[in-house]
UniProtKB/TrEMBL annotation:
PROSITE patterns in the record: FA58C_3 (PS50022)
Stored Gene3D superfamilies: Galactose-binding domain-like (2.60.120.260)
Organism: Thiolapillus brandeum
Name listed for the protein in its UniProt record: Discoidin domain-containing protein
Domain F5/8 type C residues, every copy: 84-243
InterPro entries: FA58C (IPR000421), Galactose-bd-like_sf (IPR008979)
Amino acid sequence: MTVPVGTSHHVRSCRFRQSKTRLSACFTGLGFAVFQCVEIMRKTFLAQVLLDKAGRPLSIPCVSRGRSEMQISWKYKCIVALIILVPSLPVSAGLITPSSATVAAGTLTGGNAALIIDGSVPPEGQYWQTDTAYWSGTSVILQVDLGARYKLEDVLVSVDNNDAYLVQYSIDGLSFSNLFSIAVSDGEIPVSPGGMDTMSSDSANPEYVPSIDFSAVDTRYLRISATGGDNYYSVGEIQAFGAPSSIPEPTALLLFGSALLLLPWARRLYN
C-alpha cells in the first residue's frame, strides 16, 4: 500500500496537537485546583489579584505563536502555581492576642484564668492576690490558647516573686514540652516585702531574665504551673510574642510538586 506524500508528517502533527491539547487540559485542571487553593491562601497578595469582583478566576489574554487567545498560557499557569503555593515570607514578631485562657487542671483559690491574658501586667511588688489568678498547692495548671499556630520568639510573665514555675508549649494541646523554668531566685523583687514580679525572655526588655530565654518554637498552646515555693502561687499575666507560622497545606504541596514535575515536559512540547 502506498502512503500518500505528507501523511507521516500529518500524523506526527496530529499527535503533537493532541499532546498539546492534553497538556493544556492538564494545566487547565491544575489552574482550577490552584484557584481552589486561593481561599486557603487568602492572605497572600495574588490570591486577591487573580479574582474578579464576583470571585471568579480571571481570564488572562495572552499571545501564543502569533495567535491571540483568551486563555492562561502554560507558562503563566506555572508561574501562578509557584507564586501562590510557595510559603509566605516571614512576618516580623509582635504581641500575640490569645483566644482564651482556662484552668486545665486543679482549682483556683481566687481570681480567674482570663486575668492572665487581659493585657494588664500588674505593677512589680503589687499584692499577689490583686488582679491575678491565684491558688495553693501545685496541682493547678493554667493554659493559654493563642488561637492559631505561631513561631513563638519571646514570652513575658508576671508571677508571685518567691515561687518556682514551669512554662510549657504544645502545637496540638495534648502533648506539651518544657519551654523554660522560673526559679525562686529569678527576678528582682526581694522575698520581703515580696509581691508580683515581671520577667521577660526578650534581651531588649528591661525585665529580661537570661535563664528563661529560649530558641523560637512553633506552638499554639502555652501552660504555666507552680513547681515549688511557699505553697501560695499567683500569675498576673502571660504575654506571647511571635509571628504566624507559614505551614503549607498538604494539597498545596501536592500541586506545587505537580507543577514542577510537568514543567520540563511542557517546555519540550512548546519549544
